[in-house]
Write a structure and sequence with these properties.
The chain is an alpha+beta fold and 83 residues long. The protein contains one helix and two strands, in the order αββ.
């Protein structure tokens, strides 16, 4: 009887640790999902804006003035522009 009691306590401690780890992981996953959802919403808003701009203009460029670099975001088909 004396030998079984320490084993039971050890098992209970082990189960408790596993439950705590599971709760911590659940919270971490929830926080990560919220961050990803926020990032996705920002990207979708940027995409909607870009789609509206591209409908009105022949060419759309992203220009980084600090580095003197640019990126072609959109050029309408049939435009007399070399890529």
């Amino acid at each position: 009887m004396i030998m079984r009691q320490p084993q039971s306590v050890t098992v209970l401690v082990f189960i408790t640790v596993l439950i705590v780890l599971l709760l911590i992981l659940t919270v971490m996953v929830h926080m990560r999902n919220r961050k990803l959802k926020s990032t996705l919403e920002e990207q979708m808003a940027e995409r909607r804006l870009l789609d509206k701009i591209c409908a009105d203009f022949t060419a759309v460029y992203y220009v980084e003035l600090n580095t003197s670099s640019f990126e072609i975001l959109h050029i309408n088909d049939g435009t007399n522009v070399k890529k």
